[in-house]
Structure formats: C-alpha cells, structure tokens
Automatic annotation (TrEMBL):
Organism: Antarcticimicrobium sediminis
PANTHER family, sorted: FLAVIN REDUCTASE LIKE DOMAIN-CONTAINING PROTEIN (PTHR33798:SF5), FLAVOPROTEIN OXYGENASE (PTHR33798)
Entry protein name: Flavin reductase family protein
Family as reported in the entry's similarity comment: Belongs to the flavoredoxin family.
Residue ranges constituting the Flavin reductase like domain according to the UniProt record: 19-173
GO MF entries: FMN binding; oxidoreductase activity, acting on the CH-NH group of donors, NAD or NADP as acceptor
A Pfam family this chain is assigned to: Flavin_Reduct
Amino acid sequence: MRYDLTPETRALGYKLLTATVTPRPIGWVTSVSPEGIINAAPYSFFNVMGDAPPVVALGIMDRPDGSLKDTARNILSARDFVVNLVSRELAEAMNVTCINAPPEVSEIDVAKLETLPGVHVSAPRIARAPVSIECVLQQVVETGPAQRLLIGEVKAIHIADAYLLNPERGHVDAPALNLIARMHGAGWYAHAPDMFELERPVYANPKD
Ligand SMILES: Cc1cc2nc3c(=O)[nH]c(=O)nc-3n(C[C@H](O)[C@H](O)[C@H](O)COP(=O)(O)O)c2cc1C
C-alpha cells in the first residue's frame, strides 16, 4: 500500500507517520511566559540534531484555532527553554501537563511539580527529571502555515548523579534512566527497551 500525502490528507499523514516513526523521545519542555508563568508540556517531535554546536529541535504545531501553543509563544518571546527527559515514574505527571490549560495557569502547579532555576536560561528545569537540557533559541524554521521547528542550542545538560557511572568521562547509566518514549495512537508509550548491541562496521580496502 502506498499513501500519497497532500494537504487534504493531513490527518491521515499524521496518523501514519506518528504510528510508524516510533519510538520517539519525549521532550518535556519548560518555558516562561512574558508574565512570568512557568509552562510545561510534552513534545515528541523532538530530537538532537547536531553536536557542533550541540542543537536540539522541537516541532510545534499551532492549536486547531490557529493560536500558538504556550510553549511556542513563550520560547519565541524569552528565546530560551529547557528540555526535561521523562522517566517512567514521571510519565503520569508528564501526561497531566499536556492539559490544555490557559496561559495564566501553570501546568507545573497542576501536576504538583517542583522546579529549579536555569543556569544559562530564564526557564527553570523540572527538579525530578533525571536529565534536563538548557537551550537558547537558535533558529525558527516555518515548516508550514501553522507549524514551526524551534532549534535550540544546548548550553548545559543536568544529569542526576545517581545515573552517572563515571562523571569525569561522561559515562551515563542510560538503561537506569528508564526513559519513556512515544508510540502509536493517542496514548501509547514505551519504556525499558529490549536492547542489543551491533558493532559498527569498518570498510576494509581489498587492496590493503
Ligand atoms: C507525549 C506527547 C507528545 C506531544 N508531542 C507534541 C509535538 O511534538 N508537537 C505538538 O505540537 N504537540 C505535541 N503534543 C501536544 C501538546 O503537548 C499539547 O498541545 C499541549 O497542551 C501544549 O501545551 P502548551 O500550550 O502549554 O505548550 C504532545 C502531547 C503528548 C501527550
């Protein structure tokens, strides 16, 4: 079966892409509104996109009524944000923060979360998150009339000490983070991946 995607098949394209491009990491983004309200919301159109400089990208669609989501509105005005990663024990709190609360209501309060101040950014991080990534907005790419990619340059990564095997060498106990990821459909998630290792092949020139 082949599905050709056009503007008219938007809903089908969303369904097919989000059901197949899985698992997707969840960026639990904290940002601050111009009025000083702390906002938190999950974004699974998220990933690391380069390392020199280190950058991450968030894909944010407008709301159905055409207004900016609070996260986009805040980042475009404050020009920074924090991406917190979500462990299994934080999944329910993360889910609470995708509530469509108005800008004057902080999802941080609704989900009963605590935050710690950012070091390089105005946005705070979620205290219980095992990993938090402080980002300064680098570029905004308009990918459609009602969606944009926000590219952030990473200024600092906070990793809870319990997950560091060798802090000096930056060795992280990645499985212990127990991060969750977005799967297909409206409410499916994955965690604790069934891992395997592959050695990276090195091309050997037959003439050598
Ligand atoms: C796990 C998860 C991932 C999500 N990923 C995205 C995404 O990548 N892009 C997006 O525009 N909305 C995404 N959403 C929806 C937003 O989180 C939702 O619209 C939220 O209310 C936005 O909050 P805000 O207005 O405080 O930014 C996702 C929701 C969930 C539960």
